């Protein structure tokens, strides 16, 4: 089975409202890149890579589509069912560039699942946890208007709440303190700073809050700062933006500061690389979140397949940005049940792209 044709697409994803990160970063739309790989026996696989704008990670949409146009011609004729060969070929053409490799890797998992008539989670190690928890997203505001959001998530059975820090230590301390007043004893609150706090500000917020129900995700920009934060406050950290490879996970585990890892598929280079980090966390009993850097229904399906192989007791949850999108590019793939999600039993990623929404290819190679 060989790769016969590759088609590349780009689409705009409109957010329902402006999405804000610490440090004044804000997004109203995303540009996603899609790849369709077809084998000589007619099997098809779809992949997606969607950087969260251009000021979140060292990646941006224009680079993804340019990288795919450079890689795609060299993949024609490569064994479609030999993922190691596909990725090695792509890496010889383009060094690094995980956001580019993500789309290729994802499409190959989808294609191979269709060829073997098995869901992608089977290719990723099997099914261990059937229902995947989704944290309840609480808007980063100070005011009683957050109360209905707490009640809505709680009614859905969600016990882990999550909010974004703004980067302002005074506001963030007041915000977290207010949210703690709404939090039940058996619930937790994850405060995600996306690396936006200055080190001394991060320490100040953690010490002011001082509640074991609060978890801090990527409080500072670098790993050394996050490690110092943990040692200074006694608060384990959930690593996100700096968790780019398994070596960082091993180092943080050895330093005794790791409270969890947020594994983002698009940040590390695809499902294969994300699985390596996931399996390292499982081997070392480290809690994990599974996410992606952004994306539509295709990325959403990939997100859901990967955590099915994580033991329930260390799976903190999953998140994708489709709840924040007005745009839909596909159907199927992900099923919902209250505050949990799970993959369909269809082959590959299980999602069927909408051709009218995806549009015409920007480039084709055969």
What would you say this structure looks like, in words?
This protein has 366 residues and is α/β, with parallel strands linked by helices. The protein has 13 helices and 17 strands. It has an eight-stranded parallel sheet with strand order 5-6-7-8-9-10-11-12. Strands 3-2-1-17 form a four-stranded antiparallel sheet. A three-stranded antiparallel sheet has the order 4-15-14. The longest helix has 19 residues, at 98-116. The radius of gyration is 20 Å and the shape is globular.
Short description:
The protein is α/β, with parallel strands linked by helices and 366 residues long. 37% of the residues lie in helices and 25% in strands.
Overall residue-averaged pLDDT value: 95
Bin the helical content: 25-40%
Helix vs. strand class:
alpha/beta
Strand neighbour order, sheet with most strands: 5-6-7-8-9-10-11-12
The outline comes out as: globular
Main sheet overview: 8 strands, parallel
Using only CA atoms, what is the Rg? Answer: 20 Å
**Strand residue percentage:** 25-35%
Beta strand count: 17
Low-confidence stretches: none
Q: In sequence order, what are the helices and strands, one letter per element?
A: EEEHHHHEEHEHEHEHEHEHHEHEEEEEHE
This entry's quaternary arrangement is single chain
Gap between N and C termini: 15 Å
Tally of alpha and pi helices: 13
């Amino acid at each position: 089975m060989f790769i016969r044709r590759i088609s590349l697409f780009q689409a705009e994803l409109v957010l329902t409202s402006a999405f804000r990160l610490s440090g004044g970063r804000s997004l109203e739309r995303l540009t996603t890149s899609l790849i369709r790989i077809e084998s000589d026996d007619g099997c098809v696989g779809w992949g997606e890579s969607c950087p969260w704008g251009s000021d979140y990670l060292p990646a941006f949409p224009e680079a993804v589509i340019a990288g795919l146009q450079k890689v795609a011609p060299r993949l024609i004729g490569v064994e479609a069912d030999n993922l190691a060969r596909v990725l090695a070929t792509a890496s010889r053409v383009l060094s690094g560039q995980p956001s580019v490799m993500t789309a290729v890797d994802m499409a190959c998992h989808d294609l191979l699942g269709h060829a073997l008539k098995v869901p992608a989670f089977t290719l990723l190690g099997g099914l261990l946890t059937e229902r995947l928890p989704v944290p309840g997203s609480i808007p980063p505001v100070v005011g009683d208007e957050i109360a209905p959001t707490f009640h809505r998530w709680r009614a859905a059975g969600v016990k882990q709440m999550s909010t974004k820090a703004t980067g302002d230590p005074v506001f963030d301390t007041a915000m977290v303190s207010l949210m703690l007043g709404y939090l039940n004893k058996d619930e937790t609150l994850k405060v995600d700073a996306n690396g936006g706090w200055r080190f001394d500000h991060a320490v100040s917020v953690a010490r002011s809050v001082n509640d074991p129900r609060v978890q801090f995700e990527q409080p500072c920009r670098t790993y050394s700062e996050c490690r110092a934060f943990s040692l200074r406050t006694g608060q384990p950290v959930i690593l996100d933006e700096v968790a780019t490879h398994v070596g960082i996970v091993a180092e943080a585990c050895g330093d005794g500061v790791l409270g969890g890892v947020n594994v983002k598929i698009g940040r590390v280079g695809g499902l294969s690389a994300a699985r390596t980090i996931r399996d390292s966390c499982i081997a070392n009993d480290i809690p994990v979140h599974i996410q992606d850097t952004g994306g539509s229904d295709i990325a959403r399906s990939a997100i859901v397949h990967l955590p099915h192989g994580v033991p329930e007791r260390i799976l903190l949850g999953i998140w994708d940005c489709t709840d924040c999108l007005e745009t839909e590019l596909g159907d199927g793939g992900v099923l919902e049940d209250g505050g949990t999600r799970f993959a369909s039993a269809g082959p590959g990623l299980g999602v069927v792209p909408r051709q009218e929404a995806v549009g015409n290819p920007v480039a084709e190679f055969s």
